[in-house]
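Posted in: Protein Modeling Q&A

I'm a second-year student putting together a small comparison for a lab meeting, and my supervisor asked me to include a predicted structure for Alpha/beta fold hydrolase. I've never done this before, so apologies if this is the wrong subforum. The sequence is pasted below exactly as I got it from our records. If anyone can share the structure token output, I'd also love a short note on what stands out.
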Amino acid sequence: MSTIDGAALVKAGGATFHVDMAGDGTPVLLVPGAGGDARQYAELAQVLAQNHTVIAYDRRNNGRSPQQPDWSETSVEQHAGDVIALLETLGTPPCVVFGNSTGALIALAAALKATGRFTGVVLHEPALLGVLASPDDAMATVQPVIAAGVEAGGLAGGAEAFVRFAAGDAVALLPPDFLEGLRTNARVLLEAEFGAFASWRPEPKALAEMSMPLTILSAEQTAPFFLEAAQWIASHAGVSRRAVPGGHMGFLNHPREIAEEIDAML
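Accepted answer (user: helix_wrangler)
Welcome! Here is the predicted structure, written out as tokens:
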């Protein structure tokens, strides 16, 4: 698939998406997590574009994608449908899909929904809280962070505090324009997505019957609940979990290592 580098607004599945495309070669789709903004993948996309056509997009109502003012709720399944509709509209041949955190949930849901659209799935630090033995413990880790941010700066402060916490040591590498978009769309993250995404879980039978290659990546500097979630997926899908450098958003400071895992899938 050959493309001209650049950005465009693409209508698909009843919404409009900001789409960044770069490179030439076998296609890779990047699904963003918290903030829903592809700018968090800028360095990863640049590395991947040396060998692949890279498609990175801002999720529904996030980042540079137009806001739908009457939109107040969503689901992982809705975002998975967006992925499929976007690929169909772009005319993209079957591709590898990569997602981090909640983006990993969307990538997995899309792959389970439309197997023929994908040649492989790479999940990095999947935030699959719905399978945890004690999800309240995981929420107790992040809720004080968000609460302190909200107290200091409203919803915008809460959203930024959450993502800065998730980025950990790589926080300085978050693009300023990404943070600006995150603050602008804080209501989407905290009021529409946070709870809906936390309750989603795939059917174990569907994971066991997956026919496409699946890679599950856990960060070396991660929280126990992310390890538990990754292992749950791995055990039901019958694959091994792999460790990669960095923290929860390790693609910020280790883009080449993450790109190598995606290359290995191809």
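A couple of things worth pointing out for your meeting: The radius of gyration is 17 Å. The CA atoms of residues 40 and 174 lie 6 Å apart.
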